[in-house]
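Bug #77: duplicate submission created two jobs. Keeping one. Sequence:
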Amino acid sequence: MAITIYTYSNPYEIHKEPYWASIQNCFHLCVSQTLVNGLCDQYNKDFDKGKLTTVTKFINALYQDWESDSVAISQRAAIDNLIEYMDFSSVVDDIPQEDIVTSLKRNRSDVVESIRTMFELGMDPENIKTDELTYDQKCIVEIYKELINSNNKFFKIKKDFKLDEIDSAIDRTINQTLKSKNQDISKIRKDSIVVHGIHQFTPIMLRMIEELSKYKLVVVLFNYQPDYKNVYQTWLEVYSSFEAKVVFSPRNLNNDSQQCEGGRIADNIAAIIAGNTSVIDFNNRIEVTEFDNSTEFAGYIAKKFEKAEQLRKDDEYKHPALYYMEEQLYAANSEVNNILKIYFPEQFGERAFLDYPIGHFFLSIANMWDPETQTLCIRDLNDLYECLSCGIIIEANHGELISILDKTKLFFAKETTIKGITKKLKKLKNRIEEINEDEKEKQEFKRVEYFDVTEGEIDTLINALNELNDITRYFYDDFNDQRNDFKSFYKKIGEVLVSHVLDVQEIDSEFKEIVQRVLKRLDEVKDVEATASFDCLRETMQLYLQQIPSEGRGANWIVRNFEQIDGDVLRKNKDHHRKVYHFACLSDHDMSITRKDEFSWPLDINFFEVAQAPVDWKYQVFVTSRLEYKNFRRYALVYGLAYSKCSIKLSYIKNEGDGESELYYLFRILNAKVSQYEPDVVELHQKKSDYIQIENFKMGRFDQYDLMRYRLCKYRFLMESVIEEKSVYKDEFLLRKYLTIVLEHRARRHFEGKVFVKNIVFDYLNDQMDELKDKFVFINYADSIDIVRNALAYLEKYVLYNGKFMCIKDKEIDHMIKREDFLTTKVAKNSKLDEKEVFKNSTQQEVDDILNEDSLKDVTYKKTLNALCATCSEKDICLESFKSKKA
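Kept job's structure:
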């Protein structure tokens, strides 16, 4: 095996190493695209015309069959079928077969990845000590054996390449990098292949290196500083398993950045790790910013990015936004990008087809389909929302269907089939007809959301649900739960995309182009022969339904992980010296955690260390690199600090998950000064810009109860009085309170002026409750008992005088209306709300003077947190009542 391992002392001066002349014209492979970019920037004269690319691109070219999506799909189907039909009782006799199958199917994706890992490592099943395995691992090994014994064509990873096959893969990779086949690449040497910066090896990387070394000299390069030997020991731990000697650089480190703040901190960290604290100057305090939580950290980054976007605009978009960011962020835990994706989705690359509403449609109908009953089973109402809002089912006005669905959902909440929902909707239609015929009931139920729809709207929703049912049956009518033909299914999806999406004239041109690339993608995998369970088919949608990537639309991560530091420190920028490298998430939790996906389930370190002891170097390197991940993360931080030629900033997040985190222990030892992040004062005032104003809206005439809402909360007034023109209760909690009030008011009117006889009143309330149950279908037996008792208690306490029901005068009518509109007129004594001021009565002239079109056009409809927020019909939109006390 021809492998040579060299180190270099300084990443800015690799070209000064004695071996450089012998490798500079060779084909180079890097662990990441960021390292490719950094080396190209730093050594642009040496790395031109496709010499430098990523390891992943070359692996995809060399193992194109193994790495293809069509093989991945077929592999999933093959394993799914094995899980279904294999008998695991021979290896696990104390666990029911059904439980084993359920466990394996539930983790089907992980099982596939584990099996692929075993094939890539070339593990010999005869050498595996099954007595040392868990029952899940024993099952995995049985599946692995069966695939080998059956000579499964989808689990054959190519080996023993010929020289011309390797050269051909190199040429394809170079041409892909150049994006052209017409350039002269003859000057790129192929006799030696140079590999840069790999610490976390995957099995397929190691196989690739082994195959190359049969015909060519493989030169592996990584940075090494003798002064930081304890920090860099992690590299030697990994590379000690190679069957090659590490040749250390004879040059001394010559790095001006050691005089910078980052270099001094790196020196101090290295000294602590080496136990040499005598050389540390503790007077040079390190400053660390503490962010309270991930959301606060994301807000901080968002402001930096928005400023960069403005600079980019001023510079006429000459460079990407990240070029203009004053801080380049690297995080030990880069999950904050999940929040930033919401702020700046366009920054994270082209949206995948399945992230679009129409993509959600296909995922949702797959989630709802029940192969056993051959019907849609609605376990999660959000799936139905996705299907009705994506545009597949045509609607007169966009959003009309989900608006009707949202209003009526409580009436059919317990139904899980389209047939059951449509039946309930027809029943609702009949109830609305009955209510509209009785003026008294019409007034009573106008505040109930599902009665606030028209009969025509219900018909529209029923027709849409029936159309959804028809489309779904078109996909699944020939499916069963045993063996489903993937080819047939995705052919039908292609037909629906053409007929319901491409043929629609209103389709956005950009999305149309994405759909066309999805169809092209479907055409590429149309010949995949795969049959498996429906659950397996559902999982493969992520592989099938994706568009062919568009050039230049890749993700540009705002916060990068530590693995990307090595290349970024080499990037050149005319304002580079003004930048700040911000190393974030430096808590004990984030710096010390091992990679969560260290091994795919059910494989773990015990499986690799105890279950067998192979001598193959590839196996040893793979396992060691995984075990060294925590130390690699520490090395990456020191590397970034040592070689940054600009200012640095350090920070960590205090509250993560369910607990608090501490600053990384090395910084605590260095007596770091921690300061809490304080938002700019200006930022707090900017919230005023979020207050709502309305323009060119024709106001109706308001009454004194609208004025009460106005005094209470401007936003509530906007929603209830201006937009909905009344209080409309939408959730079960508020509707139960409203139903209680309806019962009370019915009793007050029925028994007005009569003597209170508890049993008679109680029987009347129960009779009325039985009548109302038909209209409040979500009320169960226990709820009805509580509502009747609460109504009776209220009547006894507030509406009796000398043992009789009070006569209903104007004052009582006014109070009843207030209770129906606000569900209460009593607030806690310690509340800051002045109920007398809010609920005071006004003349129509007073109302008109305050609530008129001229006065309302300049109002900012600010949300006001108050004692009545819990009973507001708009609380789920406003969300003010859900704010924490701290906020």
